[in-house]
C-alpha cells in the first residue's frame, strides 16, 4: 500500500485533500440519476459513486453516438443546401 501512496504522490497532479474529495463525491452524488434519487439518509460509498459516475459517462457517450448517427441519417434525407441541413451540420460539429 505504501508503494501505491508514493506513486500517487510522485505524479504531477496536485494532491486532493480529504475534504475536497468528500466535496467532489457529494457533488457527483447530487447529479447522478441513479444515486440522486435515493433518500439522503441512504449511505453510498465513494467507490460506488465513482463507479456510477463512470457508468453514467459511458451511457452519455453511447447516447451522443446514437444521436450523432441519427443526425447523420437525417442529414442524408434532406436537401444539402436547405436550412435544415445547415442546422444538422452545425449540431454534428
Search tags:
93 residues, mainly alpha, 5 helices
Give a quick rundown of the structure.
With 93 residues, the protein is mainly α. It contains 5 helices and no strands.
Give an overview of the whole structure.
This protein is an all-alpha fold and 93 residues long. The protein has helices at residues 2-9, 18-31, 33-36, 46-76, 83-92. Helix 2 crosses helix 4 (46-76). The N and C termini lie far apart (45 Å). The chain is elongated.
Helical amount = over 70%
Distance between the termini: 45 Å
The average pLDDT is 82
Kindly state the number of beta strands: 0
Q: Tell the overall outline.
A: elongated
What integer value in Å does the Rg equal? 21 Å
- Beta-strand portion reads under 5%
Largest sheet: none
The low-confidence parts are none
Give helix and strand order, one letter per element, not per position.
HHHHH
In DSSP terms (H or I, runs of 4 or more residues), the helix count works out at 5
Structural class by secondary-structure content = mainly alpha
Chain-wise SSE layout:
Layout: H1 2-9, H2 18-31, H3 33-36, H4 46-76, H5 83-92
Amino acid at each position: 500500500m505504501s508503494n501505491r501512496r508514493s506513486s500517487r504522490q510522485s505524479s504531477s497532479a496536485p494532491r486532493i485533500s480529504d475534504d475536497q474529495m468528500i466535496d467532489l463525491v457529494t457533488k457527483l452524488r447530487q447529479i447522478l440519476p441513479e444515486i440522486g434519487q435515493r433518500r439522503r439518509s441512504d449511505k453510498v460509498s465513494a467507490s460506488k459513486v465513482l463507479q456510477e459516475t463512470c457508468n453514467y459517462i459511458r451511457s452519455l457517450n453511447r447516447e451522443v453516438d446514437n444521436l450523432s448517427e441519427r443526425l447523420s441519417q437525417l442529414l442524408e434525407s434532406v436537401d444539402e443546401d436547405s436550412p435544415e441541413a445547415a442546422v444538422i451540420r452545425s449540431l454534428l460539429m
